[in-house]
Amino acid sequence: MDRQHAEATLIALRxxxxxxxxxxxxxxxMPDYRMGWVHKAICTELDAFxxxxxxxxxxxxxxxxxxxxxxxxxxxxxxxxxxxGRCPDMSIIGTSYSADLSSRLNRDVQRxxxxxxxxxxxxxxxxxxxxxxxxxSGSYLRNSDLFEIVGxxxxxxxxxxxxGITGMGGNILIVDDPFKDRAEADSPTIRRKVWEWxxxxxxxxxxxxxxxxVINTRWHMDDLSGRLLEAARxxxxxxxxVVNFPAIAEEDEEHRKRGEALHPExxxxxxxxxxxxxxxxxDWEALYQQHPTPDGGNIFKAEWLRFWLPKDLxxxxxxxxISWDMTFKDGDDTDYVVGQVWGRKGADRYLLDQARARMGxxxxxxxxxxxxxxxxxxxxxxxxxxxxxxAVIDSLKHHVSGIIPVEPDGSKTARAHAVTALFEAGxxxxxxxxxxxxxxxxxxxxxxxxxxxxDDQVDATTQALRDMERRAPLNINPAILHAPARLRxxxxxxxx
Length: 496
Fold this sequence. Notes:
Blueprint: H1 2-20, H2 22-29, H3 37-54, E1 60-64, H4 71-86, E2 91-96, H5 99-113, H6 116-121, E3 146-148, E4 155-160, E5 170-176, H7 182-186, H8 188-202, E6 206-216, H9 224-233, E7 241-244, H10 269-279, H11 281-288, E8 306-308, E9 316-317, E10 319-325, E11 337-345, E12 348-357, H12 361-374, E13 380-384, H13 389-396, E14 403-406, H14 412-417, H15 420-424, E15 428-431, H16 439-448, H17 456-467, E16 474-475
Parallel strand pairs: 1-6, 1-7, 2-4, 2-5, 5-6, 8-15, 10-13, 12-15, 13-14
Antiparallel strand pairs: 3-4, 9-16, 10-11, 11-12
């Protein structure tokens, strides 16, 4: 009897711990789960996330982790089941890159809730005894797309990325790996569709005070996580708590030293090194280290960059040009209109000024005129003769002198490679960010090309550098470096 009493006491204690924390719940419902420190850390993050949702604090949590390290089991299977035990009136929308995978995760959550161990932990949370696809019977729904908690308002709705989510809201939105593979992540069209679906469909289903959980392995700098973080950086979106777990530590951490594996019980260091060699640098850095980079490494190396301050500029330039890259779609997800002023002195090229903004046609014409007026010695105004360039040329050719249509040849990447020798030789000089704050974004786009979210600044740069020829010296007034262009504030990007 004493032994039975002790066993009953241990079971009761295990169940109580399962009610208090996600880690305890995982141990109780999945005893064979190999829980390392990283999984305990994830559970702690998810516990805090749930508490914030309960308090109506609108939490935003992003977990980035290598594949096959247990993130989906914890965040997309055990966590929803745990939420329904703790909060049976909550609604969850779970999504992934395909409807089939989302439905599979839905069924997995149902199986957890049906476990006898779960019933012992959370006896108030139950599902319909049979498959119910319509509300005609008056029963609680239960199928692979939607199930409801019997006697409560709670529900779980699954959907694939791009699919509709009608008629329901969610206290918690879960996005688990929105991209299937490298091919999808490398497609600008698919990346745009994922973003549009997130902003126009999924996000609109979030209940007030609700939370969003993004669980993914990084693929691309412009994937969903990349866009969310860029929007946050620009002050245009939600602020996220980001928890990155690289497969191999890049510095000393609380639970491991630099160079140690994330979960050595499952993936020892030797196996990770073998994976690194097998998949290549790009996929390794993105998938396993959470540092997405362009294919083949950066075309423009950071160590090639040379920065100027006003004291470093020559008094005379052999040539000056203005180079424009244009688009007219005035939206939050379109490319920018970019105008750059370049000066050449001997073998050296200097980026002197830049105007960059999302602009419509009228604002583009105004920005073009303003930059031309500010830099009158830049007699050549280069405009790519495709897309929206011909309309600008046609509208301004009788009002602004020196407009030169440029017919692009080859791909963007090929044009970039054509000027890398100038950068590598130290002949290209750009403004120091201390002097021109916009130079920071320029450097980021340049060094991340062709994997960056935008390439408008790079296009303008390659166009200018390839056009430059040796001409007669030009004298410029030093005061022009500090004169603002007559642009609206959103457009102005030149010298302070």
